[in-house]
Amino acid sequence: MCTLGAAKINNSWHLIKTRDPVSWMRWDDEIKLFNSPSDTCRKWIIQNPDPHEDGYYGGINEKGVAFTATYVPVAENQISYIRRPYVRLILDAKNAKDAVKIIKSFGPRIGGNMFVADGKECYEIEGAPDEYYVHKINKPQAKTNHFTHLLYKNLLWDTSPDFRKWSSNRYHRAGELIQTANSVGDLVSILRDRKHADQKSAICSPPQERKCFTHSAFIFDTKGKKAYYCQGNPLENEFKEYGF
Predict the structure, then answer these.
(1) Please, where are the H alpha helices in 91-215?
(2) Where are the alpha helices (DSSP H) in the chain?
């Protein structure tokens, strides 16, 4: 599961994400530049490297449109944004509003917490099988693995008592930190934050702390049209910059 954030820094919306995959999800990922005839524009996308088990976890295109999301299972028929080709199609968008339109066009709906942004606008989205909640935001915000607007409960809350605490602690901590973030360095610090480690619910978890530990993290700068990607645990690895 993941921690997401959106903040406007130097007049540019930045989206952030950690990847803490659980046992039934793909573990490793890599960043890849998509530039084929089927793409309307170039895109940096974080994906699973196995061509037989492809999954897309977020990305940014050369027009500065960025997308991040995390899965929130609220029904048995929930469709994950991870499955191809959703993220790649979303990043055909020319701006954030167009990305929202693309997401709304999917049938069935894709599920989870999402942010889409360009240099000027950012939208938060909550997706469930029966409805979307879409709202344009004007201030920093964080999301984890539960909804704050739609009245659906994560199915894992009934099977894993610790999951509610894990999601809630990360949500409040990321929401607190992102309010004062003023640089990419501040965003990196959020993605490496260790508060609530004693409860095994920190934003960033090392392998020895929990089974679903942090495998990677990334930042998208919409105005600068850049990705900052950390392959591997952010406590042990550095972020590298990718542009067009």
Answers:
(1) 96-105, 156-159, 161-178, 184-191
(2) 86-90, 96-105, 156-159, 161-178, 184-191
Assign 3-state DSSP to the chain and report helix, strand, coil percentages, each to 5: 20, 30, 50
Where does residue 225 fall: left (phi above 0), alpha (psi -120 to 50 degrees), or beta otherwise? left
Enter the tokens of residue 37: 């005839």
3-state secondary structure of 97: helix
Task: Let me know: does 93 contact 87? Beta carbons within 8 Å.
Answer: no
What is the model's pTM? 0.95
* CA distances in angstroms from 71 to 12, 105, 114, 201, listed in the order given: 26, 19, 9, 17
Mean pLDDT per segment of 10 residues, for the chain of length 244 residues? 94 96 78 91 92 83 97 90 91 98 96 96 97 97 96 80 84 97 98 93 86 90 98 96 97
Instruction: Check: CB of residue 152 under 8 Å from CB of residue 75.
Output: yes
Token pair for 188: 């990196």
Q: Which of 213, 223, 214, 217 is nearest to 244 (CA)?
A: 223
Is the CB of residue 197 less than 8 Å from the CB of residue 170? no
Length reported for the chain? 244
Indicate the DSSP class of residue 156.
Answer: H
3-state secondary structure of 32: strand
State residue 190 phi and psi, 5-degree precision: -60, -45
Strand partners, 9: 12
